[in-house]
Amino acid sequence: MRILLGVSGGIAAYKVPVLLRSLREDGHAVRVIPTRAALQFVGAPTWEALSAEPVTTSVFDGADTVDHVRLGRAAELVIVAPATADLLARAAAGIADDLLTATLLTVTCPVLMAPAMHTEMWQHPATRANVALLRERGVHVLDPAVGRLTGADTGPGRMPEPEDLMRAVTTLLAEGTLRDDSADGPGQHDSATQQNSETEQDLTGLRVTISAGGTREYLDPVRFLGNRSSGRQGIALARAAARRGADVELVAANIDASLLPDGVHVSAVETTAELAEAMHRSAPDAHVLVMAAAVADFRPATANATKTKKTDDGVVPPLELVQNPDILASLVQDRRPGQVVVGFAAETGDAHGSVLEHGRAKALRKGADLLAVNAVGTDQGFGDVPNAVHLLDADGTEVVQGSGSKDDVAAVVWDAVVNLLRDRDRDRAGAGGGDGSAQR
């Protein structure tokens, strides 16, 4: 495949030679087009040596062959990494003041951009508007990673690692979204994908609070009771809600910062008490509450102020546990009119019933509008593995099933929430209450 690799002037450019080498090792022909600023970070000899192709930055270089047109027509994929705020702005505005931006106006193949900048720049309304415009035009703009930035700063804005960018390229290839030169625009999707992108703003105007991860209950300053939840399902729910237009708060219990999604407000907690406080603080302003966190049912009656030592006689000190409050049940009890509460129930079958039987009993006890019941075990539910849920209503009746990746399950859950809200709007309208939109 013929790939153009655009590099703009950010410090993350130092990672891109690794991406270039991986692309070459996969058999792709790669032409690097850096901006003039990018050469301040990685010089032309490096790009030429790794790509085995010439490196130029100006439309006046190679004027005899009109490179910006020739390269654009020949390209089968364009990757821009890093894509700085300046580059995103110029691309969105159609400015063509160097070889890279001029070439972007001539390509008819998919374009993949990997933003990298400080958090404040990424979250600035101008950048967000530019990204939205580029995505509307069919450009694949990745969300930046969350992590260490230049200096001591940490937050969303870090360029995805080269291996993550390679996975993104592989995904584009696997999904069949790469098109030939006869295509009529960059990164166009088929009609089904276009229809999905149009309908996925169905959470616009809604405030959503989602808990994710697993709570910890400390035995002493070193040890704690916990669970295996990685928070990935809650993260997928938050990411999907934000993409569908919602204003999202993620209450994250002990989640790896590198997994946290962009575009959401994150409140970090550790214990069940902290999680309960955060959810109840956010609840009055939320239209939808989702309890996806794995909450510790028990905590030590007392926690030692110092590390508990082993004894020479091998006697283990007794551990007295007390039950934690039921956060989901309390959110259901305190919900305001029209508010939707969604719970998750991780279950294992036993001698007293199946996963679904335990889930139905829990749905009746909790009273949540929807309860996602999922089986958990060594290779299912927890972590970076597929998930499967039975979505039950407050009466324990199955509404829908969902399975696949965490993102697939998140889509099923939000589709069910949207359907529930629409049904309520129709019921209010039928009762003479208008279209119900004001109650959102």
Overview of the molecule:
This protein has 440 residues and is of the alpha/beta class. It folds into two domains: 2-197, Flavin prenyltransferase-like (Rossmann fold); 207-430, 3-Layer(aba) Sandwich (Rossmann fold). Helix content is 34%, strand content 22%. The strands form five sheets. Strands 12-11-8-13-16-17-18-19 form an eight-stranded mixed β-sheet, with helices on both faces. Strands 2-1-3-4-5 form a five-stranded parallel β-sheet, with helices on both faces. A hairpin with a 5-residue loop joins strand 6 and strand 7 (154-158).
Keywords:
22% strand; 440 residues; Rossmann fold; five-stranded parallel sheet; 14 helices; eight-stranded mixed sheet; alpha/beta
Number of helices: 14
Say how many strands there are.
19
Strand order of the largest sheet: 12-11-8-13-16-17-18-19
Residue share in β-strands:
15-25%
Going by CATH, the homologous superfamily of the largest domain would be: CoaB-like
pLDDT < 50 stretches: 177-199, 435-439
Number of domains: 2
CA-based gyration radius: 25 Å
Query: What name is given to the CATH topology of the largest domain?
Result: Rossmann fold
Describe the sheet with the most strands: 8 strands, mixed
At CATH level 2, the architecture of the largest domain is 3-Layer(aba) Sandwich
In CATH, what is the class of the largest domain?
Answer: Alpha Beta
The global form is: globular
Q: Report helical residue fraction.
A: 25-40%
Q: How far apart are the termini?
A: 49 Å
- Look at the helices and sheets and give the structural class: alpha/beta
